[in-house]
Amino acid sequence: APAMSDELPVIGIIGLGDMGSMYARVFMEAGHQVLACDLPSRMPLLRERFAGCENIELLDDGILVTRRAIITIYCVETANIDKVVEHCGPASRPGACAIGQCSVKEPEVRAFERWLPHDVNILPCHSMHGPNVKTEGQTMVLVPHRCEAEVGQYIHALFANTFGYIVREMTYEKHDAITADTQALTHLGFLAMGTAWMKCGGYPWESGSAWCGIDNVKALMCLRIYANKPHVYSGLAICNPRARQQVSTYSQSVSQIFKMMIMEQEDKLMERIMSAKRALFGEDENDCVILLPDELLEEHALSKSFETPPASEAIHSHISTMAAVDSWHQMKINPFKNLMCQTPVYRLRLGIAEYLFRNSDLLHKSIKSAVYDKRLREADFEFVQAVTEWSTSSFMVTSMAMQPTSMRHRDFFQPCLAEASEKSAKLIAKLAGDTDKFSSVNRKPSQIIFDPVPDDEPPQELPMHSPTPSLPPQLQSAPPSPCISAMIPDMSSSSGPPGQNLRSQSAMTIGQTQSPAFSRLVDPNGRRGSLERADQKAQGVKGPTGSTGSAGSTELTGKTGRPDLMGQTTIRRPVV
């Protein structure tokens, strides 16, 4: 690994899961010092995984990370972000930068505003890809929510140059509105597809039925999701309030299209689908933003013992794709503009839709098959049922409650996951290398499409590999947080398992500094309590419930005691 440079900022990473580990390795290879931590139960495995790696120090507590790091990246699931930031965030260095990698930004922004000191920069980000995808040419969204201009420019350049990202800046509201389609709805569709295949009791690509190029892509993307963490993908709809309308509309489109199919209402179905086609894709079948040639799709097909028929003979109902396009039309969404927050899976989902809807002959044959071919009824019925189940679950349960179901489905596809992951990665890399095809995010459809969020000014993209500016003075001069000793419970006993002697570790590593303004309350079982502003209690400052400050209370801003998303932070740094 390159030698560490004093000019490079210290990077803190809280959460060394798949994405956190990916971040750590890339920054380590670039010469940054990386401080990282995870749950105590995972630390032995992580110490073994990173054994012998230079430029990384694994710590036993997230407070030790935020206290020393200039830039801290929170790589935790959306459902856990608030409690993690509550524990680690108040120890952040003055002037430091907090970055979150959650797939849904609103809960993350709320957590940062609630628990971070007011002098910490807030720049949520989102790498729009999975941990096993090459970062070069992929998209990253950066949300400069509360930061100084120089700091925002530096972070933008840091990610563009270190990872090779195309960095797009936008508000967290716009990010969540777009990813409701590019992530939540996209993954729900593929998860439902896999559920239907499982209930039908077989792998359709091995059945000898007509199976063509876009069917290969559907299977690869479905299995790619199941090969990772399907309950996390399904949880995107749970945590993103803007996804509910889109999930509900998609479920309605699937149900209504299926009703027309079983009632053999060909004219009505044809009119509805062609109306959506004209609105989103126009009449010119050669005007493709995403081109998925048959030879490319067949090259990455799953293994099978039968000869692949030409696309003109491989007729399915394609109800999942027709419903996707119909729901875009119903919600007046331009899916091409959503490419600014594209994931590889969304890019291919839109490519599948273009392939089908740009080929009038294939589209007409698919509609006729959907209406009259009774052999397709079982799979289509199971798909409709699966969409209903997944969409209903998205509004009623947590992502962890969905984990057993997701894992059971994953077990069904286990024999195919390794091959699908390998071939889908090659397909994604192939398409990512031809970025010109995917850059036309401002393409105009044949008629006006209203976006769910008003357009901002075009994002200023930094060319990849342009020089990274010098580290801003705001980050260079950030001293360690003075409140660390008050925030770590006294576990100075030399006995016990590794990780308990936090106070002695902090003294050796960062020195002991006591702040009278904060005290960390610890219950008899050793659990960390809330931060208490002792000086407020002495002055009689009222807390969020109207009572004077006391153990377990926290100063909040605003008349109601709840933080304002656009207001000040709710935890203030002590004066020392």
Write a structural description.
- This protein has 21 helices and eleven strands.
- The strands form three sheets. A six-stranded parallel sheet has the order 3-2-1-4-5-6, with helices on both faces.
- It has helices spanning 18-29, 43-49, 62-68, 81-88, 105-115, 149-163, 172-200, 213-227, 230-239, 243-262, 266-281, 294-299, 319-331, 344-357, 360-372, 377-396, 403-432, 473-476, 484-487, 502-510, 534-539, and strands at 11-14, 34-37, 56-58, 71-74, 97-100, 121-122, 125-127, 139-142, 166-169, 518-522, 528-533.
- It is an alpha/beta fold and 576 residues long.
- The longest helix has 30 residues, at 403-432.
- The chain is elongated and about 70 Å long.
- β10 and β11 form a beta hairpin.
The assigned structural class equals alpha/beta
Task: Give the uncertain stretches in residue-range form.
Answer: 1-5, 435-465, 483-576
Record the strand order, biggest sheet: 3-2-1-4-5-6
Mean pLDDT: 74
Shape: elongated
Q: Tally the beta strands.
A: 11
Largest sheet: 6 strands, parallel
Calculate Rg over CA atoms. Answer: 26 Å
Brief description of this entry?
The protein is α/β, with parallel strands linked by helices and 576 residues long.
What is the strand and helix layout of this fold?
Blueprint: E1 11-14, H1 18-29, E2 34-37, H2 43-49, E3 56-58, H3 62-68, E4 71-74, H4 81-88, E5 97-100, H5 105-115, E6 121-122, E7 125-127, E8 139-142, H6 149-163, E9 166-169, H7 172-200, H8 213-227, H9 230-239, H10 243-262, H11 266-281, H12 294-299, H13 319-331, H14 344-357, H15 360-372, H16 377-396, H17 403-432, H18 473-476, H19 484-487, H20 502-510, E10 518-522, E11 528-533, H21 534-539
Helix pairs in contact: 4-5, 7-8, 7-9, 7-10, 7-14, 7-16, 8-14, 8-17, 9-16, 10-13, 10-16, 11-13, 13-14
